[in-house]
């Protein structure tokens, strides 16, 4: 869940790489994954698709026990709003969801009216540009 990501856990992020145009996404799910590298594109093992990931700065240290790095991965499931607009998340959003326009390296992002399904807000902000990228 996004609320469970502590600022210290993302303190070494240097960049967010988007694999899709986030202009059309009201929300993305985010999680902290244990990955073998600081920067490369991670393997993806969930249903749905990965839409982005964080790269870490060279000074990021791996976990001593596992040798892995904690990195954020941004993803969507097949039943999320972008694929099924009138489905389960027509209003509201999953617990780990944030508005992608509020994300930046070292910034957890937040839920907004747009991410919660206020389509009026989504249409007004579409194409307006996104802060925090």
Molecular structure report:
The protein is mainly beta and 133 residues long. It is 5% helix and 24% strand. It is built from one helix and five strands, in the order E-E-E-E-E-H. Strands 1-3-4-2-5 form a five-stranded antiparallel beta sheet, with no helix packed on it. Mean pLDDT is 89; it is low at 121-133.
Structure, briefly:
With about 130 residues, the protein is mainly β.
What key phrases describe this protein's structure?
mainly beta; single chain; disordered C terminus; 133 residues; 5 strands; elongated
Task: Outline the fold blueprint.
Elements: E1 13-18, E2 28-35, E3 49-56, E4 69-76, E5 97-98, H1 119-125
Antiparallel strand pairs: 1-3, 2-4, 2-5, 3-4
Discrete helix count: 1
Radius of gyration: 15 Å
Structural class of the secondary structure composition?
mainly beta
Order of helices and strands: EEEEEH
Uncertain regions spanning at least 5 consecutive residues = 121-133
Mean pLDDT equals 89
Largest sheet: 5 strands, antiparallel
Strand arrangement in the largest pleated sheet: 1-3-4-2-5
Oligomer: single chain
Strand content: 15-25%
| Share in helix | under 10%
By DSSP, the count of extended strands is 5
Q: What characteristic shape results from the CA principal axes?
A: elongated
Distance between the termini: 21 Å
């Amino acid at each position: 869940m996004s609320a469970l990501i502590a600022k210290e856990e993302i303190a070494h992020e240097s960049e967010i790489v988007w694999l899709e145009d986030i202009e059309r996404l009201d929300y993305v799910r985010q999680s902290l994954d244990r990955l073998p590298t600081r920067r490369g594109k991670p393997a993806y093992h969930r249903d749905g698709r990965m839409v982005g990931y964080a790269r870490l700065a060279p000074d990021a240290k791996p976990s001593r026990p596992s040798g892995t790095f904690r990195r954020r991965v941004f993803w969507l499931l097949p039943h999320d709003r972008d694929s099924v607009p009138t489905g389960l998340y027509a209003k509201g959003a999953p617990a780990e969801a944030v508005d992608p326009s509020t994300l930046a390296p070292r910034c957890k992002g937040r839920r907004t009216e747009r991410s919660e399904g206020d389509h009026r807000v989504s249409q007004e902000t579409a194409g307006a540009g996104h802060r925090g990228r």
